[in-house]
Amino acid sequence: MFDALMLTRGDDGATQAAVTAIDDNQLPDSEVRVRVAYSTLNYKDGLAITGKAPVVRKWPMVPGVDFAGEVEYSSDPRYQPGDPVLLNGWGVGESHWGGLAGKARVKADWLVPLPAGLTARQAMSIGTAGYTAMLCVMALEDRGVTPYDGPVLVTGANGGVGTLAIALLSRLGFRVVASTGRPEESDYLKALGATEVIDRATLNAPEKPLQKEQWAAAIDSVGSHTLANVCAGLKYGGTVAACGLAQGMDFPSSVAPFILRGITLAGIDSVQAPYARRVVAWHRLTRDLSLAKLEANTHEIKLTEAPALAAELMAGKVRGRVVVAMELP
């Protein structure tokens, strides 16, 4: 038996979360069984656990969009018992039981070997948030953005993607401008590598479709009016990598910055990114991310603490990364 955070739907339609003891036979059928060492709490996990959005597609559900651990059993020759692996996305925690449990059974195609030199805990300190941040950085690089082009704006700077994007960009030599709704966290963001901190209130309301050219590029995890204003303030030929919707799914903008300044809006999908891209991103993370900054950006909790912290996450009271440690007999 092992513990799992189980989500059920009450008679009133409300989501109920409880840590429950289950066994291997209750896991969904798939090719590889993994003994989970660590999982995380991401924004999507917060939505699922609190029921703030219809993230869960099947009930009951074990949330957790990522995990790291060791293979216990595999019917696929690519993985053998004892192999260290990690997983991000692919609908786990939404339509397939996820990582907030002592064990998980998943498709072999969804797994990535744990990069050499990285522990399971470090991998989940990075998690889907850091992996997504790396995909964003790679998208900017693919479009030729360099540190010489000017500052890079990071919105949602205190969140998981934001904090790790700042750490990655600063280590690569970029001047980083961090946008946050918590100005009291300025010293923390500057310790991660931000050179300037601005109030998100300057970006989160309707403004002109073309504004002063300020940033060479941006990484946005907020969406809505914030993304529209980011686009409006990009320098000629700039690129914004968009990966989130914390403010909303809408995009109240115009074609003006695209056809008058030649900017690029690059959408970043971490859920179904191809295997080769995932492997590159994870190996880049082992090279380009300061493990000291990563540890300082990480808070570890037990599985039983996850529901309460998910509520705090949705209230905007959690900064950085949350690692969930599994306790198996």
What does this molecule look like?
The chain folds into 2 domains: 2-114 and 297-325, Quinone Oxidoreductase, Chain A, domain 1 (Alpha-Beta Complex), CATH 3.90.180; 129-267, Rossmann fold. The strands form 3 sheets. Strands 3, 4, 5, 6, 7, 14 and 15 form a 7-stranded mixed beta sheet that branches. A 6-stranded parallel beta sheet has the order 10-9-8-11-12-13, sandwiched between helices. Helices cover 28% and strands 26% of the residues. Helix 2 (120-142) crosses helix 3. By secondary structure, the protein is an alpha/beta fold. It has helices at 43-50, 120-142, 160-171, 186-192, 224-232, 256-260, 275-288, 291-296, 306-314; strands at 2-9, 15-22, 32-40, 66-74, 84-88, 103-106, 111-113, 152-154, 176-180, 196-199, 215-220, 234-242, 264-267, 298-302, 321-325.
Nutshell version of this structure?
The protein has 329 residues and is α/β, with parallel strands linked by helices. Helices cover 28% and strands 26% of the residues. The chain is globular, with a radius of gyration of 20 Å.
What attributes does this structure have?
329 residues; alpha/beta; Rossmann fold; 2 domains; 6-stranded parallel sheet; 9 helices; 15 strands; 26% strand
List the helices and strands and how they pair.
Elements: E1 2-9, E2 15-22, E3 32-40, H1 43-50, E4 66-74, E5 84-88, E6 103-106, E7 111-113, H2 120-142, E8 152-154, H3 160-171, E9 176-180, H4 186-192, E10 196-199, E11 215-220, H5 224-232, E12 234-242, H6 256-260, E13 264-267, H7 275-288, H8 291-296, E14 298-302, H9 306-314, E15 321-325
Parallel strand pairs: 8-9, 8-11, 9-10, 11-12, 12-13, 14-15
Antiparallel strand pairs: 1-2, 3-4, 3-6, 3-15, 4-5, 5-7
